[in-house]
Structures are given as C-alpha cells and as structure tokens.
Amino acid sequence: MAGGVLGxxxxxxxxxxxGGFILLPLVGAPIAEEALKPLGVYLxxxxxxxxxxxxxxxxxxxxxxxxxxxxxxxLVYVNVYVSDPPGWFVTYRFTVPLAMHTLASFIVGxxxxxxxxxxxxxxxxxxxxxxxxxxxxxxxxxxFNAVALALSLSGVFPDVD
Length: 161
Fold this sequence. Notes:
Layout: H1 2-18, H2 23-36, H3 39-47, H4 55-81, H5 87-93, H6 96-110, H7 114-122, H8 128-153
Helix pairs in contact: 1-2, 1-4, 2-8, 4-6, 6-8
C-alpha cells in the first residue's frame, strides 16, 4: 500500500511538470502512476523476495497499492478539488476509478518478478512479459482517462466545481 500512497505525490509532480497539458491525463498520468503504485512490491522484491509467493500473490499486492492510491485520489477529488460534490460524483469517484486503478496495478504486478530485478541490478534484458504488461496497464489507464475526459467534455458528466 506504500506504493499507492507514494504514487499520489508522484502523479502530482508529473502534473505540475506538464503544466496541465491535455495529454497529461492520457499519457503522463498512466506512465507515472502505473510505475509508482507498486513501489511497495518493488521493495519486497529487492529486499525480501521470499515474501512474494508467486505471480498471483505479487499481483495481488500490487493491486493493493493501486487500491490505496485510488482511495487517496478519490478523497482528494471529493474533499479538495470539488467543493460540495454531488452524490453521483462521490459514487463515481469511489467505484469505477477504484476498479480501474486496482486492475491496472494487478496487471503490472503480474509482470513483477526476478527478471525485473535482474534488469535493474545488472542490466539484463527487461522481460518482454514485464514490458508488455506495463504497457497494457498504461493503455487501460489512458483509455479510461480518455473516456472520462470525453464524457466530461460532451456534458454527460455535469460540471463539478
């Protein structure tokens, strides 16, 4: 869950660096967030790899990082970004984005393993499955953000201030 917590400032820094450019939610956020949400799992892999009991367990732990990130992000949206949010917005922020962040982190987690650690430590080739799963999670996140942006711009999601 530490990765989810640490992913929030990472995403904020990325947003500030990009200056709020329209591509940020479609490209920048998915790149930064999908890399940062499983930070706790990376730590386990590097320091205590015996605590990771296979791919499914690793993916589950990464999903916990995604879930914690999504809860914090939801709290920021409904308590900071939007003053007096309507009920539909609160419901939305604590359902669909939570599912997307959790699933995307699970996908990344499936690719976290000894091959990733070897790539970091000695420059071994990055396993194709690790790369492909990370890309899949980024695409999922980017498509989700594009749909949410399109729904907002088209008026399906009413403006919230």
